[in-house]
Design goal:
This protein is α/β, with parallel strands linked by helices and about 230 residues long. It contains 5 helices and 6 strands. It has a 6-stranded parallel sheet with strand order 2-1-3-4-5-6, sandwiched between helices. Helix 2 packs parallel to helix 3. The model has no long low-confidence stretch (mean pLDDT about 95).
Length: about 230
């Protein structure tokens, strides 16, 4: 099996209880150079909560013991908000659901990035965050899905801005927005009827790790899919 790094590395997967997060953990545990895989999720009893800033900060402090990390993957996010799926029309916009979508898909992950980025090692390292193709502004040809699209577009901007800042201290850091494809999971099940190809979580995770493996250090963030293809912002 190809390895993500050429030397021993330590990895942290946030959102490890989800379908994709769990698949990342399993795949990394099979990487011969990955000497430790730390798992973090809201269901592991650690107190991690994406919507609680103090809980995020406390979780980062607790993860210091297992670091520093060469790879951090944030696999958190949400598509259905307050029991309601993506809006199909402007008339369906709801202020509470819009704010919640931003909290889950942009604000929370940004606070995670703020507190967990200092746990990265020096030298070649990767901070990867699950995003979505629908977060691409230039690739939006169908409309709809207002809250989810907007929150993922905001996330992408936050990742790009963070990359510029952090790379001033570590030019070998890659910040990556990852598009996992449509993965067979509880999250995607209500929206899978017209999807021509559903990916198994393991297939998606393996593809994304393969994409990370091919990236070279450059200024700014990457936005790539599970096949390694760059997506326009």
């Amino acid at each position: 099996m190809a390895t993500l790094f050429d030397t021993d590395c330590r990895a942290l997967v946030i959102g490890a209880s989800g379908a994709i997060g769990g698949a990342f953990v399993e795949s990394l545990q099979q990487d011969r150079h990955c000497v430790h895989v730390k798992q973090l999720s809201r269901s592991d009893g650690s107190g991690f909560d994406l919507l609680n800033p103090q809980a995020i900060a406390d979780s980062a402090t607790a993860c210091l013991l297992n670091g520093p990390y060469q790879l951090i993957i944030d696999a958190t996010g949400g598509l259905t908000i307050n029991g309601v799926g993506p809006e199909k029309s402007l008339a369906a916009i709801n202020a509470e659901n819009l704010a919640r979508s931003f909290a889950v898909n942009a604000t929370g992950p940004m606070l995670v990035l703020r507190h967990f980025a200092p746990l990265l090692a020096s030298g070649p390292v990767i901070y990867a965050k699950l995003s979505a193709r629908v977060g691409s502004i230039s690739d939006n040809h169908k409309g709809g899905w207002y809250s989810y699209r907007a929150s993922k577009a905001a996330l992408n901007m936050l990742l790009q801005t963070t990359a510029i800042e952090l790379q001033r201290k570590n030019p070998l850091l890659n910040v990556v927005a990852l598009q996992p494809g449509t993965v067979r999971s509880r999250l995607s099940q209500p929206f899978s009827a017209n999807v021509p190809k559903m990916l198994e979580p393991a297939e998606s995770a393996a593809g994304m790790l393969g994409a990370l493996r091919q990236l070279e250090a450059r200024q700014g963030a990457y936005f790539v899919d599970y096949q390694g293809q760059e997506i326009p912002w």
